[in-house]
Amino acid sequence: MTTFHTKAAMAALCTLALTATAHAHATLQQREAKAGASYRGVLRVPHGCDGTATLKVRLTIPEGLYSVKPMPKAGWELSTTKGAYAKTYQDHGTPVSQGVKEIVWSGKLPDDNYDEFIFVGTVAPDLADGTKLYFPAVQECERGTANWTDIPKGSERVNAAAPMVRVAATAMAQTDAKSEFTVGAIKVVTPWTRATPKGAPVGGGYLTITNTGTETDRLVGGTFPGAGKVEVHEMSMDNGMMRMRQLPKGLDIAPGATVELKPGGYHLMFTGLTAPIAEGKPVSGTLVFEKAGTLNLQWAVSPIGASAAPAGGGMSGGHEGHQHH
Description:
The chain is mainly β and 325 residues long. It contains 2 helices and 24 strands.
C-alpha cells in the first residue's frame, strides 16, 4: 500500500512539473489594456529551445494596436515590418493608415537566462470591453523553434497559446444628463451626438470645453468608431445664409475660457462613417488637444434630428450641404 501511494505521489509531482514546464513560455507582463489609451508591452522570454540559446524573437502586432514603437536592446539588432491597417486611426489628430505589424529582435539569449522585450502602442478607442488581442510570438533558437502562435476559438484550450491582452473599456463616470471628462487643464462636459440614418456619411459631435490652465490649448481632432476622420468645423451666418467651414488648425481654447460646441456653431464632424450611429447606447471615442493630449470620453447618442439647448439652427441642413463638397 505504501509503495502504491509513493508511486501515485511521484506521478502527481511529475505531472505538476510537466505542467509548469508547459506554461513557462513567452508571455506579456501586462495582461490588460485600456481602450483608447497607450499600452506598454513587455514580452517575457524565460528559456530557449531544447536547451539551446534563443537567437531571434519575432512578435506579430494585432489589429487594434497602432502607432507601435519597439524599444532597442543593447547587443541586439532591431527590425520591423510595416503594413496597412484594416482601418484608419487617429494619432494626436493625424490619420494613420499603416504602421508596425511585426517586430524582430536578433541577438543571443542563453537557455539558462531570462530577458524582456519591450514595445509601446495605442489601443483603438472603439474596442469593446473584453476584446482579446493576441500577439503571436516565435523564438528561433540554435536548435529548433518555439512557436507561441496558437489563437483559441471561443473557450477552446490550445497548447502553444499566443500571448494575449484583454481590453477593458475606459471607466467613464456619468451622472443623470451630465457627464464630465478631464485631461490636463482641459475639462469637457456633456459630449453628445445624434443617431444617423443608414447610409449617412457624416455625423456631428457637441460638447462644452473649459480650459482651467494658464496657456491657450487647441482642439485638433479625435477619434470616433467607424469614422475615417474627426474634424473641427464652424457654422456661421454670412449675408443671411448659414455657412460651414472646417478649421484645419483646430479650435483655440484660451486660458480660463469655456467654449460650447453646438448645432449652428462650432462642432465636430465625424466623416466617412462606415456604419450608422445607433441611438441610446453611449459610444467611446477620443478628443485630441495640442497641449493636454488625448482625452478618452463617451458620447451620449440622441435620436435622429434631436436638438440640445441652445438649439441654434440645427446641424442637419449644414451637413447636407457639406456632403456636396
